[in-house]
Structure formats: C-alpha cells, structure tokens
Design a protein that fits this description.
The protein is of the alpha/beta class. Helix content is 39%, strand content 21%. The chain has three domains: 63 residues, Arc Repressor Mutant, subunit A (Orthogonal Bundle), CATH 1.10.10.10; 135 residues, ATPase, nucleotide binding domain (Nucleotidyltransferase, domain 5, 2-Layer Sandwich), CATH 3.30.420; 156 residues, 2-Layer Sandwich (Nucleotidyltransferase, domain 5), CATH 3.30.420. The chain is built from twelve helices and 15 strands. Strands 6-5-4-7-10 form a five-stranded mixed sheet, sandwiched between helices. It has a five-stranded mixed sheet with strand order 13-12-11-14-15, sandwiched between helices. The radius of gyration is 23 Å and the shape is globular.
C-alpha cells in the first residue's frame, strides 16, 4: 500500500524528494528511504537530478520510470482512427491518424488492420514497437453488448460488428484491449481534467455528428444491461421523427430520428438553411445566426429536461462540436429555456477541454489499468 501511494504521488505531482514523499504519505524518513530503494531496485522509479538552492546537501529527486510500460489509446469516427501512445507516467510519446481509406474495403479483417495501422503509426513516432505495449483502449460510437460481444448502437460503422471484434483486435495488437463508448470516455476526461472535476453525479451530453450522453452516478459510469445507457440520440421528443430500427445515419439531412435529428450537427446546419441562411456549411456558421441559436437552445433544453427528470444530476456538461460552436451564448440560452421544465435544476457548463476528449479519456482509462498491473509490488 505504501509503495502504491508513493508511485501515485510521483505520477500526479511529478519528481519528489525522499522528504517530500515521507511528508505526503506520513511515512518516516527511514521507511521512505527503504521504499524508494525497493522501487528503484525493481525499476519502477529512478533518480532525476537534485534540488538545488537550499542549505545543506542537495536532495535527490525521484520520478516514476516512464519506460516500464506504454499504452495506446484510440478514438474512432466515420472518417478514420486517431491513435496516441503514452508512457506509464502519462506523457504522450506519439500520435497519428489514419483514414478509413488506409485499408481497402475488400481486405479481410479490415477493421483490425485499420486499428493496427493507426497504432503502428503512433508507435513509429514514439520510436517504439508493438511488443512494448501493455494495453490499449478504443473509444468508439456505440457500446459492446456484454451478453453478445457485438457493438450496438453504431450501425454507421461498417466492419465493427463482429462478435469476435475484441479478440481480433487484441490478437493483431498483441496486447489486452478494451472497447469503450466514446462519450463515456469523454466523461472520464471531464471528470479528471475538465468541467466535472469534484462531481460524483453528472451527465455529459455530446452533440456532434452524433448525439449521446454519459451518465456518472456516485462516481461510476452507468452502462445499462446492454451497454446502451446514455444513447439519447434515439430518444423520442416532440418534433422529431422516431428513430425506428436504430437508424442514426448522419448522411440523412435530419441525422436520422429522435433527439439526434433535432440537435446533431447536420440538423443544425439544415435548420440554418430553413431559416434562410442557405450559405451556411458548418455548425459554427449556423450557430452565428441568432434565430438558429435560439431554436437549438430550446431543443437542447427539452432533451436535457427528459434526462434530468430521470437522473437528477448535480451537473450537466455540454460537449461536442455543437456545444463548442455555440459556446457560452448557447449555454445561457439553454439555461433560460430549461427554467420550469423540470424540478431539479443542475448546474450547466460547457466543456473547455482542449484536444480530443475521447482520446484523453481513453488514455486515462488505459493508464489506470496498466498502473494497477505494473504498480502492484505485492
């Protein structure tokens, strides 16, 4: 327990002296010294210079040895796969993206080959090989059904619905792999690095090409019996066609049926056209139109009310391209429209995470799993 506490401190707070580790863990100086000697002997920590500018002998600084393990994180969308490789300390060593055209459609096991191509490209930038990976997490639309092993709620991802998908990916990468819902991973990123820090009960609503939610209760993601908790893109609402048969194709002008057809990025652009802004081509341009921004806020508020009435979270975080394009102006309008729709009144925030929150959440998840294994000194 003391070893793990010290390793976690070195990860979260960077290089520390023996004295600092003792003070932060409550261990005596001799015990802290023995602990560090033990961790250094097994290669988990290393010295990284000295503290200078103080009276007396310079104190050695210790850090987690970043090379004891590497992990991969991937974010999947309809256009391609983004991969990142990080060391056990959390430093990203390489990142790459491959498009869906990187592997021909008629190639056997195409999905596994695309994943391998993305990981290999990131590993190459990091100067590493597959044999150095200690785990991987893939964020993808939909969710693996624990009963069947199939990816559900993502009909727009051809090739990702094999019953043996997880096993195929683990075999091609040569490392254990987890497949997780992309919005759930975005919520992990918000919980650790973003707007939901210090909140145990919150909902992340993702409005982008697709629409979904992640529900965190008592600090734990709610997944549902088939992995479908939070699939609010299918949710029937007034003014939206029903999403029968799981049709959420973003290629349709209205983005399919359900809540997605009201607030998905393609629907927002189409709404701008109906408001007379025929020149609009992006969601950013659409939400600069006052009347469009106001109507989208009303639609978001109606959908949020349905979720909040059931879950009663402390916080709702809006993320995805629609939320980012609308910014604080959209958030304020949603809050105004939300008044009176439900009795619970959670705080409402816009995500301000930089980069790809799905990739960040996948890295967080992969690192947590690898550290549980590598840092086990019992």
């Amino acid at each position: 327990m003391n070893d793990r506490a010290a390793l976690d401190l070195l990860v979260s707070q960077g290089p520390l002296t023996r004295t600092q580790i003792g003070e932060l863990t409550g261990l005596s100086k001799p015990t802290a010294s023995q602990l560090l000697a033990r961790l250094e002997a097994v290669g988990l920590v290393r010295t990284t210079g000295n503290v200078t500018g103080r009276p007396g002998p310079n104190a050695q600084l210790y850090e987690v040895n970043p090379f004891v393990a590497q992990v991969a994180a991937l974010a999947v969308d309809q256009e391609g796969i983004t991969a990142a490789v990080a060391d056990i300390a959390g430093q990203v060593r390489g990142e790459a993206r491959v498009g869906t055209d990187a592997v021909a459609e008629d190639v056997p096991h195409r999905t596994a080959r695309l994943v391998a191509a993305a990981v290999d490209a990131a590993l190459a930038k990091a100067g590493l090989g597959r044999e150095q990976l200690h785990g991987a997490v893939i964020g993808t639309p939909g969710a693996l059904d624990p009963g069947t092993g199939r990816l559900r709620y993502a009909p727009h991802l051809p090739g990702w619905h094999s019953r043996a998908l997880k096993e195929e990916l683990a075999e091609v990468l040569g490392t254990p792999i987890e497949i997780e819902n992309d919005v759930n991973l975005a919520a992990v990123a918000e919980q650790h690095d973003g707007a939901a820090q210090d909140y145990d009960d919150f909902v992340l609503v993702w409005a982008d090409e697709g629409v979904g939610a992640a529900i965190v209760l008592n600090g734990t993601l709610l997944r549902g019996a088939t992995g479908g908790a939070g699939e609010i893109g299918y949710m029937p609402l007034p003014g939206a066609p029903l999403a029968r048969g799981g049709d959420r194709s973003a290629a349709q002008p209205d983005g399919g049926g359900g809540f997605q057809s009201l607030v998905g990025a393609p629907s927002v652009v189409e709404l701008a056209h109906r408001h007379g802004a025929g020149h609009v081509r992006t969601v950013e341009e659409a939400l600069r139109v006052d009347s469009v921004r106001t109507e989208v806020a009303g639609r978001l508020a109606t959908g949020l009310a349905a979720v909040v009435a059931v879950v009663d979270p402390q916080l709702v975080v809006l993320s995805g391209s629609v939320a980012h394009a609308g910014g604080e102006e959209l958030r304020a309008l949603v809050k105004e429209e939300f008044t009176g729709l439900t009795l619970p009144r959670p705080e409402l925030r816009i995500s301000h995470l930089e980069g790809n929150p799905i990739l960040t959440g996948a890295l967080r998840t992969a690192l947590a799993a690898a550290r549980d294994i590598v840092f086990n000194t019992a």
